[in-house]
Design a protein that fits this description.
heterodimer; A: 351 residues; Rieske Iron-sulfur Protein; four-stranded antiparallel sheet; 9 helices; 14 strands; extended; B: 545 residues; Cytochrome Bc1 Complex, Chain C; two-stranded antiparallel sheet; two-stranded antiparallel ribbon; 21 helices; 8 strands; electron transport (chain B); Cytochrome bc1 complex cytochrome b subunit (chain B); heme (chain B)
Chain lengths: 351, 545
């Protein structure tokens, strides 16, 4: 190390720094000793180490440039539908993998280079800066208050009460125009939530095959989904209607049905319940055949299909509505009317 | 001009280009005055101060990738039949929103990467805000003059949750549609106006055909716009207040010790942006997030099991899942408490921590500015409250994933739900008590270290056979650090009867404040820090014990 470098390093010794300004009474063992002396890094005193650091930084930035070029090459060269096996992730999109990794390297090495530069080559001498109180001095405060009083007086806001109060009135009313404009966001609820597509004589269509269901199609222990006759995915209101009309069917042994009304509304032990959970409207799709319980996968409300769809666990507040069904003279299952109560989550007007 | 010196005129003639540009800008924007105050602004260095930076950078990443995604995404619920290259979905009916998300994932080169970076960055953003908030909370950085900035940060966290939710609802996949159905149920549970709100938001009955198109401007413009404003205000206040610092040698309430903005902090912070971006990009290359193609398009009569919201909504999900299904029906109306209570509790629990700075300053009556951070142990009641809050939060996170806990750990879902119901109330209480004890224990240890020194682990045998452990006295820096904190007196109402025998009127709020203040600073809640006299007495004695 040259003598010039040593003298330069000595310039950085702590005596010169703000530490001396801290009061340090000799008799106070807990007194603030002031900023600790600055400790030199290798790079501060050894120019060769500093040059090594510079080369590391430059290497990182160079890697970044190469990674960006690799990113562009991958974008151009790799087809979008090529899938590769990467251990241990599995089969993934080659392009996504290549682009992500190269972009990640290109960005990360810029960051790593900058941080390494800052940590090894830029000054690491801690500096103390003074703080000033946020609040204004009493003089400023009184001057501002006086100016405010002058301004307020000149406006006549306190004296001209008629003007002021009508201004308040106008400002309070004018936002109503905006509120009124929101009216056409949607229709009024009316009784929309009370009705579904189910009606007397509508056959129960298998949800997958769209064929009408016969009693013999419903096996013991399975959960069958159905929708009303006449609905199809192509209809413009299909999503809205299926959101209410979705139905699930199970076949129980009639002697296992505990609820009398449920038995009356069933056909040969086949019972039809709304598939829409009465909690917040998720479709129910888990059936436990031994206990005849169904479980909503969203919030785990559990209903007993052998006991009137009663809630036995979870956050749902009321039983699943049952659809009254029978077999018509051609032997197809059909509804004997709409649900007797609104399906899905409860709401204020439900009653 | 006569006032211009010759040398200045000469210099202007050959000023470098950069200076001339800066002169031009200064003449119009006054940048030199701005730079004078800020260019060498000091920023203290600590790893925990980077948490807020993670949030800032992930927000920028979200905006960059989000703008890219808007170029390809079609926010429409118009139904189409998929004909694209992804074979399992061919011939399936879906909304344009879902189809364009499939296109971004399978046909736009790099589209999947941008989608995944966007989603990962959103998860990191929320996690970053949560931990940043906890850092600020436990170190008391929210105290005067920073209460308003805490509030800005809290609102950013809250709006971040909303923006995240509206964002992952946009692809109109089966999972997010299920989440929106839940939102319908939430609207319906609102007394009196619930059905109206639901009809107005969805443009009719759920799901209708308007919702995605309506969520879109909320997600890409309204919420991010508000957040950008709050973010800028947040940063301006950070600059204006100057950063807080941890206690230590040379650090006072009147100074800020650290590195200057130019160059060190700029290089470190700027570099850190690239580090965060790089990590998220690499994460998006190797870890799939929200694979909507395996979930399928939304249909209201279909659902998949294990349905989970993104993590930051898990707390709300938990409240909804474990709430008993209370419904009151009377006079032809239904009060859906089973849904309405959790949905009111959700913001209330959050706002409990959002408004905490104001509550604490009212209780303690502390009107001073604070720039030196508290060590969490030195504010046991606050720390205990924070841990209690986190406990409630994480208990509800368990509640929100109760099905996953059940299937992964082979537990009964009913037991988990009951555990969460009880733990939501009992957990925070236990956590509060335990945390406070731990804090007081740590305070005792600090006191012990100050008075008796550090345990060296060296055992010494004295001539008469006794074994002692050698304690090493602390350096002055450490003595200062362990004793620098304040121990204020609790708020006292004063005597009920004044010197003239007149009974003072004491408001119930005063009594409450006094009681709470004792809970913060009262006898049992603080270990008196060692005094100089104690220290001298012990250190002047014979040897160390």
């Amino acid at each position: 190390m040259s003598s010039h470098e040593i003298s330069e390093a000595e310039d950085k010794l702590p005596e010169e720094r703000g530490a001396a300004s801290v009061v340090r009474p000799a008799d106070d063992p807990f007194a603030d000793p002031g900023l600790p002396p600055h400790e030199h890094r290798k790079q501060d005193i050894d120019e060769r180490a500093a040059r090594r650091s510079e080369r590391t930084v430059a290497l990182l930035f160079t890697v970044s440039m190469l990674a960006t070029i690799a990113f562009i090459a991958a974008y151009v060269a790799l087809p979008v539908d090529k899938y590769i096996y990467v251990f241990p992730i599995g089969h993934i999109s080659a392009l996504n993998f290549a682009l992500g990794v190269t972009l990640g390297i290109a960005l990360f090495t810029i960051g790593a280079g900058a941080v390494h530069w800052a940590r090894t080559l830029m000054s690491d001498v801690e500096i103390a800066d003074e703080r000033h109180p946020i609040e204004a001095s009493p003089e400023v405060k009184s001057k501002v208050l006086e100016e405010f009083r002058t301004g307020a007086k000149e406006s006549g806001f306190g004296r001209r009460k008629l003007a002021r109060n009508t201004l308040f009135g106008a400002l309070a009313l004018v936002p109503l125009a905006g509120v009124v404009l929101l009216r056409d966001l949607g229709p009024l609820p009316g009784t929309k939530l009370r009705h579904t597509k189910w009606a007397k004589g509508k056959r129960l269509m298998n949800y997958n095959t769209m064929q009408p269901l016969r009693p013999e199609d419903i096996a013991v222990g399975s959960l069958t989904f159905a929708m009303p006759e006449g609905m199809s995915e192509e209809q413009h209101d299909f999503q809205t209607e299926i959101a209410k009309a979705a139905l699930m069917l199970v076949r129980l042994q009639p002697e296992n049905i505990k609820d009398k009304r449920e038995l009356d509304w069933s056909h040969e032990g086949i019972v039809a319940f709304s598939k829409i959970c009465t909690h917040v409207g998720c479709p129910i799709n888990l059936y436990e055949q031994q206990t005849h319980h169904v479980l909503c996968p969203c919030h785990q409300s559990t209903f007993d299909l052998s006991d009137g769809g009663r809630v036995i666990f979870g956050p749902a507040g009321h039983a699943l509505p049952q659809l009254r069904i029978r077999a018509n003279d051609q032997g197809y299952l059909e509804a004997m009317g709409d649900f007797s109560e609104p399906v899905g989550p409860a709401y204020w007007e439900r009653g | 001009m006569s006032t211009t010196s010759d040398s200045a005129a000469q210099r202007r003639g050959k000023a470098p280009a950069g200076e001339r540009v800066a002169d031009w800008a200064d003449g119009r924007l006054g940048i030199y005055s701005l730079a004078k105050a800020n260019m060498r602004k000091i920023f203290p260095d600590h790893w925990s101060f980077m948490l807020g930076e993670v949030c800032l950078y992930s927000f920028i990443i979200i905006i960059l990738t989000g703008v890219y995604l808007t170029l390809f995404f079609h926010p429409s619920m118009g139904e189409v039949t998929y004909e694209g290259p992804y074979v399992p979905m061919q011939g399936v009916r879906m909304s344009e929103a879902f189809q364009s998300t499939l296109d971004i994932s399978f046909e736009v080169r790099g589209g999947l990467l941008m989608r995944q970076i966007h989603h990962w960055a959103a998860l990191v953003f929320l996690a970053g805000m949560f931990t940043h908030m906890m850092r600020v909370f436990f170190t008391g950085a929210f105290r005067k003059p920073r209460e308003i900035n805490w509030l800005f940060g809290f609102l950013l966290f809250f709006l971040g949750m909303m923006t995240g939710f509206t964002g992952y609802s946009l692809p109109d996949d089966l999972l997010s549609g299920t989440g929106l159905r839940f939102i319908e149920g939430v609207f319906l549970s609102i007394p009196v106006v619930g059905t109206y709100i639901s009809m107005f938001v969805f443009g009719g009955e759920f799901p209708g055909t308007d919702l995605i198109a309506r969520l879109y401007p909320v997600h890409v413009l309204l919420l991010p716009g508000i957040m950008l404003g709050l973010l800028v205000a947040h940063l301006i206040l950070v600059f204006y207040h100057k950063h807080t610092q941890y206690p230590g040698a040379g650090k006072t309430e009147k100074n800020v010790v650290g590195m200057p903005l130019l160059p060190v902090y700029m290089a470190k912070a700027g570099g850190f942006f690239f580090l965060v971006f790089g990590v998220i990009a690499a994460l998006s290359a190797i870890a799939t997030i929200n694979p909507i193609w395996t979930i399928g398009p939304y249909r209201p009569d279909q659902v998949s099991t294990g349905a989970q919201p993104d993590w930051y909504m898990g707390f709300a999900e938990g409240l909804v899942r474990v709430m008993p299904g209370w419904e009151i029906t009377a006079w032809g109306h239904t009060l859906v408490l089973g849904v309405f209570i959790p949905i009111v509790l959700f913001p209330m629990v959050l706002f409990a921590i959002g408004l905490y700075p104001f509550i604490e300053s009212w209780i303690t009556g502390d009107k001073r500015e604070h720039h030196i951070l508290d060590r969490p142990r030195n504010a046991p009641t606050r720390t205990a409250f924070g841990v209690a809050w986190i406990t409630a939060y994480f208990v509800m996170l368990v509640g929100g994933g109760n099905d996953l806990w059940a299937t992964h750990f082979h537990l009964s879902i009913n037991s988990i739900t009951w555990f969460v119901r009880i733990a939501f109330f009992a957990g925070p209480v236990l956590a509060f008590i335990a945390t406070k004890r731990i804090c007081l224990g740590l305070q005792r240890r600090d006191k012990d270290k100050v008075l008796h020194g550090r345990e060296t682990g060296i055992i010494k045998r004295l001539p008469h056979g006794e074994f002692i452990e050698v304690h090493e006295p602390l350096a002055q820096e450490q003595l200062h650090m362990l004793t620098q904190h304040d121990q204020p007196e609790p708020y006292e109402i004063g005597p009920e009867v004044d010197e003239n025998g007149v009974k003072q009127k004491i408001k119930p709020s005063q009594r409450l404040r006094s009681k709470l203040s004792k809970g913060y600073y009262g006898g049992d809640n603080v270990i008196p820090k060692p005094t100089r006299e104690e220290y001298r007495e012990i250190t002047s004695g014979h040897g160390h014990h």
